[in-house]
Design brief:
Length: 569
């Protein structure tokens, strides 16, 4: 016979056992993985940070399980452990280790065949724009849908790409960084050689042998829409008043050593500057012979320019191509130069040297009395000062990347026909500025008389004509035409040149390879460029997307603003 008190104690133990058993069952139900949702109603529900792949999602599941266990054991916990919690923790560790084996170390299945490859639409693929997810605007782990061309993040079950694959029925995706192609929502990797052309458009590659043959190639390439284009002679998209960038890029693409350097990324892989890598990408896309379309959009390069120049040059604001060329060359040099030597591919191509003789006025003051008369004819004696100047000479040598040439002033008065005659000047006349004798008077930073003489010629000489003058009210444009030779510009006949070293030949002949032109009023006009194609020695006129063949003698009939000459070897 048991007493009443013993029976109550026994009932309490059974109840506690049942409670703990039911708790444990509830815990197991909570911690068991829920089946994946078949479809997601809202594509934005995946949160902007869900860029992770499968591995990171399983981390989230494990964290959720841990929080559930902590909440369920909160009442009977002591220092994070109770007599039942220990057993549950060990069960959970077993689950974790099982998940780590199946999830973290899981190899992605690779298949050679995929039933969805025929849905890939190359017409809509455009890899010129920034690699950002179209939903979360993140640049981490971005995939391109090869069916619609849009960019999405991740490929895990909570990611935007996974959601898109379920909602739109688009199943083939390429990782924009690793270039691996996956089928979603199945999650296997596709290894099919028919996708190699997409990889080549995403990231064009050149071998050293291909780079050498570029200037000998006369073959046209065909775009997907059936149009033909010449590699290296493709139009550049004018995003919004970015023609000043386009003409600068097209001109620099004619500089062979610079182009060859940027066509092979290994040459500048040590550099961390985004501007250098974006310029290299743009160079490879312009010269790529397997593009899907006959033009390139310099969008990523412009974003890098805006960031590096702190929005000095930006989309939607017209700028000066001479200023942009100067900034770009100096910035690329600063990013590419090594700490040991102050040299780079930029200096190797464009740097020359000038000897500058500066005459600075030194005041010599003598007192003198002067009479001045006011309007009331009242005579008044005032002390005046007569200033005389003695000039002090300073000689120095300075490097240059481009030479600025001054144009003669245009006529002020109209002729008998009520028209302003557009004056013309030979290039040799304005090159006399660098003969070491012609005096150029400057006002800034202080009044001085300057004489310039070239002491070292660069391989590629950039000349720019100072067409625009700013005053307090507006910008004026000088319409003077410059007559210049397209081939065989002989400098030694017009400016004194340095004597060459022993066993060295002085190369003084130059050929024009690019000519930038400004049309229209200052501040309102637009820029275009004439460039030479070396393989056939033909000239092309390029204005944004428009590329057309032209005659050499038409190159000199426009208001030239900037030129690049190549030294004859």
């Amino acid at each position: 016979m048991t007493s009443k008190r013993e029976r109550e104690a026994g009932d309490r133990v059974e109840d506690e056992g049942l409670d703990n058993e039911s708790k444990r069952q509830r815990l197991d139900e909570d911690s068991s993985p829920s089946p994946p949702p078949v479809s997601v109603a809202n594509p934005l529900s995946g949160l902007a940070n869900n860029y992770a792949d499968i591995d990171e999602e399983e981390d989230d599941v494990r964290r959720e399980r841990g929080s559930v266990n902590e909440r369920s054991n909160d009442g009977s916990h002591h220092n994070g452990h109770n007599k039942y919690g220990e057993a549950d923790d060990s069960d959970e560790e077993d689950d974790d280790s099982h998940e780590q084996f199946t999830g973290r170390n899981r190899q992605v299945e690779v298949r050679k065949d995929c039933p969805y490859l025929d849905t890939v639409n190359r017409q809509v693929l455009d890899f010129d724009f920034e690699k950002f997810c179209s939903v979360s605007l993140s640049n981490l782990n971005v995939y391109a849908c090869l069916v619609c061309g849009k960019y999405y993040q991740g490929r895990g079950k909570k990611s935007h790409a996974y959601t898109h694959s379920l909602e739109a029925g688009h199943h083939v995706y390429i990782n924009l960084r690793t270039e691996k192609v996956y089928c979603l929502p199945d999650g296997y990797e596709i290894n099919d050689p028919s996708l190699d052309d997409i990889r080549h458009v995403l990231n064009p590659r050149f071998t050293a042998k291909e780079v050498e043959q570029l200037d000998k190639n006369k073959q046209w390439s065909r775009a997907l829409d059936g149009s033909s284009y010449l590699p290296g002679m493709v139009g550049l998209n004018n995003i919004k008043e970015t023609d000043f960038v386009n003409v600068t890029i097209q001109s620099l693409m004619r500089v062979t050593p610079l182009r060859n350097f940027f066509l092979i990324p290994e040459n500048y892989q040590h550099c961390k500057s985004p501007l250098v890598h974006r310029f290299g990408e743009l160079t490879r896309k312009i010269w790529h012979a397997r593009n899907f379309k006959g033009q390139v959009s310099p969008h990523e390069f412009l974003q890098a320019v805006m960031k590096a120049s702190k929005k000095r040059f930006r989309i939607g604001a017209q700028s000066d191509p001479v200023e942009f060329m100067s900034w770009l060359l100096n910035t690329l040099h600063a990013d590419l130069k090594t700490s040991k030597k102050n040299t780079s591919i930029i200096y190797e191509c464009f740097q020359g040297e000038l000897e500058v003789v500066k005459e600075i006025p030194n005041k010599v003051i003598s007192d003198k009395k002067e009479n001045s008369e006011n309007q009331n004819n009242a005579e008044k004696l005032s002390d005046g000062v007569n200033e005389r100047y003695a000039f002090v000479k300073e000689t120095s040598k300075m490097p240059f990347l481009m030479l600025g040439l001054d144009l003669p002033p245009p006529p002020l008065f109209k002729d008998v026909m009520e028209k302003n005659i557009i004056p013309q000047v030979p290039l040799f006349n304005i090159l006399k500025k660098f003969d070491g004798e012609t005096v150029t008077e400057v006002v800034r930073p202080h009044i001085a008389r300057m004489q310039y003489r070239v002491t070292r010629l660069p391989k590629y000489m950039i000349l720019h004509m100072r067409r625009f003058t700013k005053n307090n009210f507006f910008v004026e444009k000088n319409p003077t035409l410059v007559n210049f030779p397209v081939k065989n510009l002989e400098l030694k006949d017009y400016i004194p040149l340095p004597t060459p070293k022993e066993n060295e030949k002085l190369r003084t002949k130059y050929d024009l390879i690019a000519n930038v032109v400004h049309d229209g009023k200052p501040g309102e006009g637009f820029y275009r460029v004439f460039v030479q194609r070396k393989s056939e020695e033909l000239w092309y006129e390029m204005q944004d997307l428009h590329v057309s063949e032209t005659l050499p003698h038409l190159v000199a009939l426009s208001e030239t603003y900037m030129q690049i000459y190549e030294q004859q070897q």
